[in-house]
Amino acid sequence: MAKSGSLGALVPLEIDRENPTPLHEQIAIGLREAIDKGRLLAGSRLPSTRALSRDWDVSRNTVLHVFETLVSEGLLESRVGDGTYVADRSETEADIEPGDPPVDRNAAGYPFRSLSRRGRNLIAQSHGDMSEKPLPLMPDIPDLRSFPMRSWLRLMNEVSGRLKGNILVNLTNAGYEPLREAIAHHLNLTRHLDCSADQVIITTGSQQSIDLVARLLLERGDPVWVEEPGYLGARAALAANGCTLLPVPADGDGLDVDAGLARYPAPSMIVVSPSRHYPLGGRLSTERRQALLDFSRQSGTWILEDDYDSEFFYVGGPGPAISAKDRTGRVLLIGTFSKTLLPSFRLGFIVVPQDLADGFARARSVIDRHPPIFEQLVLSEFIRRGFYAAHLRNMRKLYRERQEALVAALDSAVGYTPPAHELASGMHIILPIANGADDRALVRDLQDRGTVARPLSIYYSGRRKQSGLLLGFAAFEPDDIAATQASLSDLSRSIDRTRFRSPEPQL
Amino acid sequence: MAKSGSLGALVPLEIDRENPTPLHEQIAIGLREAIDKGRLLAGSRLPSTRALSRDWDVSRNTVLHVFETLVSEGLLESRVGDGTYVADRSETEADIEPGDPPVDRNAAGYPFRSLSRRGRNLIAQSHGDMSEKPLPLMPDIPDLRSFPMRSWLRLMNEVSGRLKGNILVNLTNAGYEPLREAIAHHLNLTRHLDCSADQVIITTGSQQSIDLVARLLLERGDPVWVEEPGYLGARAALAANGCTLLPVPADGDGLDVDAGLARYPAPSMIVVSPSRHYPLGGRLSTERRQALLDFSRQSGTWILEDDYDSEFFYVGGPGPAISAKDRTGRVLLIGTFSKTLLPSFRLGFIVVPQDLADGFARARSVIDRHPPIFEQLVLSEFIRRGFYAAHLRNMRKLYRERQEALVAALDSAVGYTPPAHELASGMHIILPIANGADDRALVRDLQDRGTVARPLSIYYSGRRKQSGLLLGFAAFEPDDIAATQASLSDLSRSIDRTRFRSPEPQL
């Protein structure tokens, strides 16, 4: 077992005898770096100067000189009758000896000190917990009380009898086969796809879907179009995987494909929410859909179709998915049950081109295998027996009423009427705020009065942001929505009624 | 919108007019590369020679010359009255036109052709589905019929009433707080830890735990000790994340720390299964545990303690976890409920040093948020009310009886008695096979006779492998175990009875 005598070997110093820099200086540089980078931990004991002079093939005086220098710099400390130690500069990382109580390292640089670069990058993308209380008008959450919990439980008890044998050991990593079949069937009906069950990969939701896609299809540094403004979860997962984000403006017709091609003509992937742009609410126009498909076919660019909110249309419908018209196998579609059922159930899916299906399933075996069986089993029955379609129908009706309640509240409070493309679908309305007004501050003011909103500006990554407030209506009773009117009327002076009439973000 | 006329811009060619290579040759090289790397997809139409001569600022004759060259090479193809296309060399990727049926690209190189390098690397680590039928003597699976499904369902129905409000929207990404508390309490009691609930990160199992640890703490290329032989899932997740695997031999006392330090003195992380080495079955000796802790303290090396199988001890106990003696916050412990409850429930955890807890939780928001709430809610009650501890006690008793049945069957069939360190704990026994004999072939022979085993050799990454058969006993009735005796006796000639007496793998 290596004891302190071999520490020199553990911290290999590059000593270059041809280098004009004096040896003691080279050694000092090497040790400073080893301490800075944490290869030599605070509290660890250095070998004797004798041992180090032998290890490094330098005179003992040279080592002594280096030690004195580093002690004077506060990097090392000398203890009488004991030896030389790496000093504790964090002031919380006490000299560590076996038997001491655990060290609390809530020090400067926390929590990044010991993480890898990619770990730091990953954490830097965090968009935090979503653990706020669901108060009106919090966007992005479905009505929680409408979830048919009793049907769900009844199914759960009923299908529990099937939980035996092979199914309890392990499933295929792509997910429970009957659930994949149920989803494929549902998508082929509602989204005009022509996919088979083996193209459906069950995930724990959109966040994992996007992370998985980035890990499998993109290299570090690969350029990816993201919508500006756009969904933060997608940006986070792509940036965490080292992709270069190229913000392409969106307007009332969704992603501005021409603008994207003019600015960034060679992306590796295009992330788009064509059914309903998040957060602006437009449906991607037919021309732009065709342009995306043409470009993808010509260039081989991947399209990641976030089919978010295709379920909640109140006027017209989402039309067929882009994936439905893909003939070259370059479009992947992601969907989630977080909005249509319940967020904390954590189930979603990716529909991948046939030739990627096996690869995605195999990757899962390395990353996390598959989502828990019980939820998959129940959901497959829930879809198969028509509960899911019925629930969607009920929610469409309910959400439309609630949308009307919010439209009425906004009209009374501030005299604002949202444009038609926003009202056609979705679970929130954006109240436009005059540019220059700080929508984050307005959100804080509202919060003090018991109303929850999200600032539109946070969904922009560029310097030019539009101000606005995302107001959700899906999860709240019309009376509770009406009750927010008082706090909304305070916003009257901040509103920009002109800006969203012809919805062209100036980017 | 960019049409084919702008394809020249989409495939930017580096034309260097100072370069002695003729222009037509430079263009040909650029196009060949674009086709090879998939930037120009098979079936895509090239712009006209006129357009390209303008885009590239070369004569039209030069472009024609290049086209002719590439057509003669089979990379391009000319269609009369239409234009020039990138040829389909895979012979399955037909000329693609809108309206054509979807392309089946089960071609050469599948499924790697369109994946990123890191995606290919990820998939290359796949260890496949675990969807085989659980037949005797399949190792690594718990007894499925003993799982207290009725208690589980009763709890599920009971706690479903708590599924309302905030909990349905989202949890903290680290997991459901009461479950984290229940696990911390259980580990502090049984593994002598002193951890708080906020150090416990709920994951979907060991596979995700290791992937998460690698992404957060290790850089691409970082050297990591793995046990030789050792757990394939850990190797897969580490290799998929670009780590350099350093195989360190293990013997009856677990990981040979001295051998590791002698060979690879500067790992970034050490992955070790100290309670019960996988697959050899030894418990890491006290001296080696101390040596690991000393080395970690001195060098700052991370230790990833896979606490796998600490629950199933029949003689003595696993002793305290290494994490329990960590004073420098460099040891992470991973645990799983896949072996103690059911594999397909997909729940596990990581216990991280205090100062990493927040970072791990934040990373989850980017990767997949949290495991489904329902399982977490039920499991927390299952542990809190003592069902979990009772189930472990019952299983220890049951598995011990089954182990005895397998020991008896092996004795009768081939006269082999396993060494004490293997019998002290775990869910399988290794039958040593003479080196040179192909244990994979023996596994296939056994399979033909209805008995399932795993070859020991697959758990080695180096050239020197030991042959053996992993025989599981936990999931099978004593009678079913006894019934395998006939097929086991066929192995008599292949067995190496001397090799495992003094368990020192020669590596």
What does this structure look like?
The structure is a homodimer of 507-residue chains. The radius of gyration of chain A is 29 Å and the shape is globular. In chain A, the strands form three sheets. The first copy, chain A, has an eight-stranded mixed sheet, sandwiched between helices. By secondary structure, chain A is an alpha/beta fold. Chain A is 39% helix and 12% strand. Chain A contains 19 helices and 13 strands. The longest helix of chain A has 28 residues, at 387-414. In chain A, helix 10 links the parallel strand 4 and strand 5 (244-251). Chains A and B meet through helix 1, helix 5, helix 6, helix 7 and helix 9 of A and helix 1, helix 5, helix 6, helix 7 and helix 9 of B.
Termini separation of chain A comes to 62 Å
Task: Indicate the structural class of chain A.
Answer: alpha/beta
What is the name of the CATH architecture of the largest domain in chain A?
A: 3-Layer(aba) Sandwich
Mean pLDDT of chain A comes to 85
CATH superfamily of the largest domain in chain A: Type I PLP-dependent aspartate aminotransferase-like (Major domain)
Strand content of chain A: 5-15%
Count up the domains of chain A. 3
Largest interface by Cβ-Cβ < 8 Å = A-B, 132 and 132 residues
Question: What is the topological layout?
Answer:
The structure is a homodimer of 507-residue chains.
Chain A: H1 7-10, H2 23-36, H3 49-56, H4 60-72, E1 76-79, E2 83-86, H5 117-124, H6 149-159, H7 166-169, H8 177-190, E3 200-203, H9 206-217, E4 223-228, H10 232-240, E5 244-251, E6 254-255, H11 257-263, E7 269-272, H12 286-299, E8 302-306, E9 331-336, E10 348-351, H13 354-367, H14 373-384, H15 387-414, H16 420-423, E11 428-433, H17 439-448, E12 454-455, E13 467-472, H18 478-482, H19 485-489
Parallel strand pairs in A: 4-5, 4-7, 7-8, 8-9
Antiparallel strand pairs in A: 1-2, 3-10, 5-6, 9-10, 11-13, 12-13
Helix pairs in contact in A: 2-4, 3-4, 5-10, 6-14, 8-14, 9-10
